[in-house]
Amino acid sequence: MTTITLHPDFRLGPVDRRVFGSFVEHLGRCVYTGIYEPDHPTADEHGFRRDVADLTQELGATVLRYPGGNFVSNYVWEDAVGPVEQRKPFLDLAWRTVEPNLVGTDEFLQYCEREGIAPMMAVNLGTRGIEAAIALLEYCNGEAGTKWADLRIANGREEPYGVALWCLGNEMDGPWQIGHKDAHEYGRLAAATGRAMRQVDPSIELVACGSSSMMMDTFGEWERTVLSYCYDVVDHISMHAYYEELDGDRASFLGSATAMATFIDRVAASADAIGAERRSDKQITISFDEWNVWYLVSRFVGETNLPIQRDAPRIIEDVYSALDAVVVGDMLSTLINHADRVAVGCLAQLVNVIAPIMTEPGGPAWRQTTFHPFATAARLARGDALQVKVDTGTLTTARHGDVPAVTAAATVDPETGALALFVTNRTDVEQTVTLRTPGATARLDGGSAVLADHVGPREGREAAEAYGMVDALPVAQEGDALTLRLAPESWTAFTGSLR
């Protein structure tokens, strides 16, 4: 028997809407034949696919990180602004693809503006540095009368874009990164670049590169060293994590969100240790700006094994199962349960590349299985995240040890009392859960669930289109007690009220 206890007075804090972000990188078909395809039947006057934009709205994406990713560390942004016919292709060393530069800063930022999505821009601290970063910031946010702002105006955009959120490079701890640096090199460069960018626009938020995963040899020491240089300059530190089912180890895969939670807690502790040393009242928050299920080990050949390609090659187009969707839902619950520290989250990526949305050139766009838990959580998780106490058994895993058999996250709207409760059953048997709300009254109107044994294995578009959320198992109420039944290996979203 599992018991979940919550109360509207015990809150972690507001759920930042930016935690439901995604990621657009010039990688594979994410941009070309993904969001952008001028010859597509649904393309708008700017060349962007309306069918993809509509699905992005349905997904609920609030932020889009751009232009990378590994791509940014070899990127010359100036070559992708101005008249398209004058732009020159270049060889992207990260993904060994000839980039045509048809979509650049202006096209992307205007797309975000039309769609009502906040952009999150990254600057190149791999092959470039301070000068290029402040030029890009001035181009995006500067007022008329300076070199780069005037270039933006000459290119047809009078008003500044007002981009608020900026990444100081990408995964600079990774040996695979073009221009990879050690923690001291990167920390000094990030601090100097951040200070210069704040001279251009003091209102921006800055994200320093944290560890590319908890398994990096430099994890922990990287955060400590980098923040020792730039703690006073940045607002957030990044985290990246991907999970997959390895060697048929289903239990460990279902326990992935426990590893994700541990990662968040350790990064937060590392940041707080630097704050304590400095006797600072400032708290660094987390930008979890790459996360997803990615079959990196078992399916991806590795970027160094890719041939040089043109014309938006099909790279890393994982097709997801219903089990993958359950794990994605559980990871979303983990982000909600860390609302007091996670300010930004980006599901990587938006279209085609390990993505919730898939397309065919000239053809349809459709939802992958992982689309459904993300869209559901983005729609329902409003207001404040609650402190949720879960008393449950354990699931033994080879990779993560004993993990909770049932996990839960909850949000409540402080004005309306609307409750959203997200519950994961990681076990292969049905679980019965008692919901306790001592001193408060809860009502559940119903819910929908992702079931790992539901249709939607790795069978391509037809299976994905047939897949969706199903009705949750019935909720029983006797007096003040609510009893929930959770299908085996499932993620369920319940709605109701809590007062």
TrEMBL record:
GO BP, sorted A to Z: L-arabinose metabolic process; polysaccharide catabolic process
Gene3D superfamilies with a match to the protein in the record: Glycosidases, Golgi alpha-mannosidase II
EC class of the enzyme, as a word: hydrolase
Entry keywords, A to Z: Carbohydrate metabolism, Glycosidase, Hydrolase
EC numbers for this chain: 3.2.1.55
Record field: catalytic activity: Hydrolysis of terminal non-reducing alpha-L-arabinofuranoside residues in alpha-L-arabinosides
Isomerase among keywords: no
Record InterPro entries: Alpha-L-AF_C, ASD1_cat, GH, Glyco_hydro_b
Molecular functions (GO terms): alpha-L-arabinofuranosidase activity
The keyword Isomerase appears for this protein: no
SUPFAM superfamilies reported in the protein's UniProt record: (Trans)glycosidases (SSF51445), Glycosyl hydrolase domain (SSF51011)
Source taxon at top rank: Bacteria
Similarity annotation: Belongs to the glycosyl hydrolase 51 family.
Subunit structure: Homohexamer; trimer of dimers.
Name listed for the protein in its UniProt record: non-reducing end alpha-L-arabinofuranosidase
Lineage of the species this protein comes from: Bacteria, Bacillati, Actinomycetota, Actinomycetes, Micrococcales
